[in-house]
Amino acid sequence: MRIYAQRRGQLAGQLAGDVAVLVWTVLWAAVGLAVSGAVGALAGPARETARTARDLAGQFGDAATSAAQVPGLGDQLRRPFDAASGSLGDLVATADRQVVLIERLATATGWLVFLIPVTTVLALWVPRRVRFVRRARAAQRYIDGAADLDLFALRAMANQPMHVLAAISDDPVRAWRSGDRRVIDALAEAELREAGLLLPRRTG
Fold first, then answer.
1. Which end of the chain is more exposed for a tag (fewer CB within 10 A), N or C?
2. Dihedral, CA of residue 18, residue 24, residue 27 and residue 33, to nearest 10
3. Which chain regions cross the lipid bilayer (predicted)?
4. Which whole number is the average pLDDT over 61-84?
């Protein structure tokens, strides 16, 4: 399957286009990662809050355990520590949820920043490349002999602009009917140019 033109000018254009799309994709992937990282950095304070609150909750829990060991007053002494530890536990849970939400937002934002410009370009580039591949593959099947070139010459007379036909012959239809190989080859080449193919070399 031919994915690139045989003609140097068209080949250079296709390669340049493919490289440009690749660079565009890599560029926006880097931008998406940078945006995701920047948004994700907003979770830093919430993450630090959760870590600090978790440490304090552990310390209050240890204090409550120690207070509970005081004979006769243990239950009363540990209550404030238990309450503080519970409040800190709620704070830890809230901070952890904030971290998760911010990280999800960072991931979604990064993907959107990447996908919107890349899919826009691909929506224009992919159909064009697919059309070329299909046209080139179909044309390649019909350039094995002189009779095949007659077919392309006929297609050229139906598809090519009038100024292109006039540059080849004053009366291309008559030349085609009379079997004028020079005109037929020129017409076929004009049509093959659309598929990026070269006129096959004659043998013998």
1. C
2. -110
3. 21-43, 108-127
4. 72
The two tokens of residue 25 are 């994709």
The DSSP code for 146 is H
Residue 203 pLDDT grade (very low, low, confident, very high; cuts 50, 70, 90)? very low
Rounded-to-integer distance, Cα 63 and Cα 161, Å = 91
Q: Which long-range contacts (CB under 8 A, 24 or more apart) does 185-191 make?
A: 185/149, 185/153, 187/152, 187/153, 187/154, 187/156, 187/157, 187/160, 188/149, 188/150, 188/152, 188/153, 188/156, 190/156, 190/160, 190/164, 191/152, 191/153, 191/155, 191/156, 191/159, 191/160
d(CA 47, CA 45) in angstroms, rounded, equals 5
What number of other Cβ atoms are within 10 A of residue 99's Cβ? 20
Output the six-digit token pair for 113. 């920043």
